[in-house]
Design a protein that fits this description.
five-stranded mixed β-sheet; five-stranded antiparallel β-sheet; globular; mainly beta; 26 strands; 35% strand
Length: 435
Amino acid sequence: MILRPSSVRLLAFAGLAVAGAVFGTAQPKKESAPPGAQARREMAAIELATPATALQVAPGFKVELLYSVPKEEQGSWVAITTDPKGRIIAADQYGGLYRITPPAIGTSTGAKVEKLTIDLRKFTSAAPASKTGAEKAKAQSRPEVGAHGLLYAFDSLYVMVNEDRQNAGLWRLRDTNGDDQFDDAKLLRAIKGSGEHGTHALVLSPDGKSIYFANGNHTDLPVNMEKARMVKWGEDHLLPRMWDARGHARNVYAPGGYIARTDPEGKTIELFSIGFRNQYDIAFDANGELFTFDSDMEWDQGAPWYLPTRINHAVGGGDYGWRSGAGRWPAYYADSLPEVVNIGPGSPTGVTFGTGAKFPAKYQRALFAADWTFGTLYAIHLTPDGATFTGVKEEFVGGKPLPLTDVIIHPRDGAMYFTTGGRRTQSALYRVSYT
């Protein structure tokens, strides 16, 4: 994921670093930790969900806190989807899956939460007797699932496993005996990539026939990828590249973060667009146009090659110009594609369109984009502009702390649901409805 520290702390740290570079002052060893490490520790120590009354929301809307996740028992939730019965399925970043039956519109209490029994370790890592105790303990310490992306489609739950390196990739879960639990699991395609820049979200195509997925820039292309919209990409730099001074993404090359699609059985994977840094989620509008919320390299703020977090219109064959270090393509490059709207510093997570929401028409057409760092859910209002779009941002929901992870529109009640959590922070499930 792209879960980053408070930008206030980050900018303070950056200022100290620049001062040290200019005046030649040595930094103590304790400051060699990544920027904002202390802020992340403080965030992880919070054990109470932010109450709904402490959140700001656009006029005419109401936010309800439906469930505060007990962190020690149910972890930190980063992805949600709905099943055919209208229940919400949530993924603990470092654990298993949970199923939530939300209360009816009009009441914010009584959410039913149950843990699903699926454990992917049983399908790939049955420990033979010859394994040592240490090896068995290591296998057992891996997450039951460790997903960053969920999608219920084709009578199956598709899971993009991230945090378990040995199981990373696209999985298909099924209930084969009708007991309302997933008892069958199949790895459709292994994808090497884990952690915050690894494998991410899944969405259904507009025609309902295929699955699109988004992966960050520390993720290899899928094993035995069959097709690509683009035929060649490279690192054609006129001047020697300056790698990141802290070593981030050193020796990581194009295509960087990418979007691909596959059939329901995972038989064929096609690379759709490339050149993102770390787009956690993707969403289609009502006309089938695809959008994403890509991240910045926050340590590059002030450098000529810095690009802010931004909303991108993702088109087939497009290259959005991420290259490691100073090799980043400026937005004005003719062979790149411009942003729809620049958001500024932040940490992009979940996105969804308001299609199907019981909201005013303006918000049904909006793209909702979640920012973990600043605790802000933006409504992006789009305007067609030639072959693409321009947009303006509105702060739709905000709070402190509010580490947003995923957001969906419920297909039955037409309300918006979003989760907070990630990086072992306090999780919660909220609902937004129009009053």
